[in-house]
Structure prediction request, 458 residues.
Amino acid sequence: MAVIIQAQPEIRGVDVAVNRRYVYLISAIAALGGVLFGFDLVIISGTVPFFTKHFQLNEFQTGWAVGCINLGAAIGALIGGKLSDTLGRKKLLMGCAVLFALTGAGTGWAGSFPLFVTFRMLSGVAVGAAALVCPMYVAEISPAPMRGRMVSFYQLSIVIGILLAYLSNYLLLDTGVNNWRWMFSSQSVPSILFFLGLFFVAESPRWLIRKQRNDEAEAVLNRIGGSTYATAEAVQIKASFSQETRESVNDLFRKDLWPIVFIGIVVAVFSQAVGQNSLFSYAPELFRQAGMAQDSAFLQSIIIGVINFIFTFIAIGTIDKIGRKKLLQYGSILLCLDALALSAAFYWQLPGVWVLVFVLAFIAVYSATLGPVTWVALSEIFPNRIRGNALALATLTLWVTNFFTTASFPVMKQHWGLPVTFGFHAILCFVYFLFVRVRMPETKGKSLEEIEKQLIHQ
Prediction:
């Protein structure tokens, strides 16, 4: 028997019974793509000292090895928007699951460094496409009162993936000279589970209506909220497409749409530039530099994953109450202060326990604010008719930024030192705080179509 809640639907003034259990189920399955996202990005953190020794890499090659996945993700973001509009959200996610499984094993057992990089970049293609489509799909099937919380579950799944990656690395640490190969290969297990789970989710009703498959769309909407909700939602969705012309990338730069697209790009860029990538991807190395033993450093990384997991629930519980804008403001200014504290800790060479405290605080703040809010904002601010291309452009910039921050970290650490590196991140956090305060709109509690009208006519 379905669990239902009374909620205000996306058509104001009409009460509907939302099938909460069904929305949670399909959102949770779709969000498993985030598990692979987090797992794939962070699994490399425990392998760095082993594959760099195996392939005899310098700091530039190490940065390339860690960061190249983000260039693949940029490619995935570029093609993901178009493929999601052509094939549908569900089929594209199934393809990503297969690619995740194949590239995990391929990276682990690569016989040469060029082949290693090739598989990592192909894995990135799956990451980039899934990172675009998963939150978009969840936003498109969730009723407005639940949407922020549902999309936040995507960030939670990323966090779970990060935690599982750290745990996998720790458990496989003592498996011999091929330990790093087994670490990468372990990615195939969640990939297969994701693929199987996708057989139980429905296609996005907004995509179905766009493809003139109205009966199928209304059947999905009816299961989500009943016949009244389905009829009202279908009318609203059809109206948003009624003036639609053939979608073009050039539409993103139209005078009425570019300000919205620009906000999305800035949100995407700063979500990756504030410094969390350096902590996630190089955590064991940072802890070793702070004086911790190798086993201890890997164990501290698991603590990072646990903190990341716990504090994501703060965002899930508050995002539809506090709102997107306030959480981004609180997060960016707190991260600025924490990055300054990390800079000071490395400058004055404070004991490793202080480094651990500041790293955990940074992860906690990011997990409760910028991490989940970024995906919610990107999934809901773009109008229906340009959502595919706009999300593709935003996530493209996200992954390019991720590449430069991840690949540059060992170089910056080598030539500038950690105090300057984290001081630079503090400046970026403060700039983001100012941008959110001045330009970011509040979208909590509004339907996707209401957000579209608000942003285009503001």
In short: The beta strands are 4-7, 16-19. The chain has one domain: 19-201+243-457.
